Structure formats: C-alpha cells, structure tokens
Amino acid sequence: MKLSIVAYGDPVLKKVCGPIEKDYPNLHELIENMWETMYNASGVGLAAPQIGLPIRLFVVDTGDNDDEPRYKKVFINAQILEESGEPWGFTEGCLSIPEIREEVFRKPNIVISYFDENWQKHEESVTGFAARVIQHEYDHIEGKLFTEKINLLRKQLIKGKLDKISKGEIRADYKMKFPRQPKKR
Length: 185
Description:
alpha+beta, two-stranded parallel ribbon, 3 helices, 9 strands, 24% helix, 30% strand, globular
C-alpha cells in the first residue's frame, strides 16, 4: 500500500525516534508498504518518520548505477558508530521536502550497527553513495533534516519555499500529508 509522505513542518520529522521491539505490530507489512511508497515516489531511501511514525526504521535502495553496486537494505534500531574521511559535497533532496535540492557535505565512510527485517544483527562498513543515503535516512530517525546541514545564506533563500511546502502549496507526484494545509469543508 502506498502511504502518504509527511511534508516539511510536521513535528514528527523533528522527533528523535524510539527503538522498536521484535514484536512490533505488522512490521513486515509496514516494511513492504515503505518499499512501495519509496519506489512510487522515485526515492532511494525512506524513514519511518516520513510516513508519520516516530520509530527507528528506514529502508535504502540506491538502485543500479555505473559507479557503485546496488545497495538495498532494511535498517531497524540503527546506530552509526563511526563516520570518517574528508567530507564531500553532493546535491541532496528529500521526499518530505519536494522541489528543494541543496549541496550537503558528509563524510564518505561509516560504520553502522542495525537489525535487518529478520532481526539479524549486523555491523558493517559502508562507503560512497550508499553511506550518504544511510546518513540522510539516519538523520531522519534522529529528528534532523538535510536543510539543517546547509549554509545560513542558502537556508535564508529557501525559507519561503519551505513555508509553501508545509502549507501544501506545491505539487508532488506522490501522496503527501501537509501539516499546515487548511482543512477542506
């Protein structure tokens, strides 16, 4: 089932998410719905807060590209243990913040601990684009958005656009839920 993606301005996007237990209700169905929602929106990652759930869950699928192999995984109760390397800039976007793309600097290497959808524990090193996508989604479960990582001048320049997004004054090619959209009578 395609779920609505929560837009910028919704308080759930600013919450530090709580861990989930192995018996979380309908977890496998939720994960399948997250994959379907992410693919429908042409995303490479989706975190639970983006569908309104303040839990430590996200999915990543970098897709096929010539530079790096496909990286597709489910992350439950993830913890980034280490970030290393010289930060590099890349233009990022976010399904919760449509129509805005900005250069964000992140370190290229991470070590992450997490459970997969079968509750197998993993600790692995990830590099490159996959590491960037993981860091972006991890920020979501920590209550942070990529717009907080851009320089002050760029923040000022996009303030009006962000306000329009929260009011629903944009058009997205997928279902969205806007925090400040007037109620229809």
